[in-house]
Amino acid sequence: MKKRLVRAAFLDRDGTINKLVYYPDHGFVDSPFVPSQVKLLPGAAQALKILKKKGFLLVIISNQPGVAKGNMTKKAFAAIDRKFDSLLVSRGAKVDAKYYCPHHPRARLAAFRKKCSCRKPAPGLIFSAAKELCIDLKRSYMVGDGVVDIQAGQKAGCKTVFIGHFKPELWKYFGKGRKPDIVAKNLLGAARKIR
Fold first, then answer.
1. Model confidence over 129-152: pLDDT tens digits?
2. What is the C-alpha separation between 192 and 10, in angstroms, rounded?
3. In CATH, what class is 8-193?
4. In whole numbers, what is the pLDDT of the chain averaged over residues?
5. Torsion sign, CA atoms 91, 7, 16, 35
6. Which residue has the higher pLDDT, 74 or 176?
7. What is the C-alpha separation between 131 and 170, in angstroms, rounded?
8. Quick check: 191 and 47 in contact, CB under 8 A?
9. CA-based angle 121:59:41, to the nearest 5?
10. Which pLDDT band holds residue 1 (cuts at 50, 70, 90)?
11. pLDDT at 2
12. How far apart are alpha carbons 148 and 37 in whole angstroms?
């Protein structure tokens, strides 16, 4: 008997569920480098609960090259991940699975320096999750705050949701000249719009 495929909400992590961090000494915004920097965005936990009630499997799909770039150790990355989980659980939410790409083409650490099929905008992580978790990609959504999130979702055959203030000049960066299926101010707004 063929296993029934499920719907998933594939979710970027940083900038979508938790806050990005500004590093003034370096002049850039990036993912948290230590657990104390992990802070959920307003309404994010509630959004996950809404998506769960709508019947979606919640799967994190995230580029995480912090170790590769030398910004943190593997131990620090694991501690950040635990803090992320504990913040969600404390608000009555959780994700079902997480798929991280640790690579970067200009990584400081040679073991992580490569062009891979899992780093967004490549759809490798989405395909891996779909195979392992029996996900119907056509009925699923990729949700994120970056162009690469939308590109990965489109390449995988998902519907896409852009989080933030969408500008028409971004259209040229999306696959086949298509804009995202949904644009929302934040994850909570996205959860309410997703059918």
1. 999 999 999 999 999 999 999 999
2. 15
3. alpha beta
4. 92
5. positive
6. 74
7. 31
8. yes
9. 85
10. low
11. 61
12. 24
pLDDT, one tens digit per residue, over 28-73 is: 899 999 999 999 999 999 999 999 999 999 999 999 988 888 889 9
Residue whose tokens read 């690469």: 148
| Interacting residues of 104 by C-beta distance below 8 A, sequence separation 6+ | 65, 68, 69, 112, 113, 119
Q: Which residues pair with 10 in a beta bridge?
A: 59, 142
CA-based nearest residue to 160, from 180, 145, 179:
180
Residues marked as catalytic: 12, 14
- The fraction of the chain above a pLDDT of 70, given in percent, is 95
Cβ atoms within 10 A of the Cβ of 178, count? 11
Which residue type does 146 have?
Answer: G
The string of DSSP codes covering the chain is -PPPPB-EEEE--BTTTB--EEETTTTEEE--SSGGG--BPTTHHHHHHHHHHTT-EEEEEEE--TTTTTSS-HHHHHHHHHHHHHHHHHTT---SEEEEE---TT-SSGGG-S--SSSTTS-HHHHHHHHHHTB-GGG-EEEESSHHHHHHHHHHT-EEEEES---GGGGGGSGGGPPPSEEESSHHHHHHH--
Q: Which residues of 45-55 are buried (b: 16+ CB within 10 A; e: fewer)?
A: bbbbbbbbeee
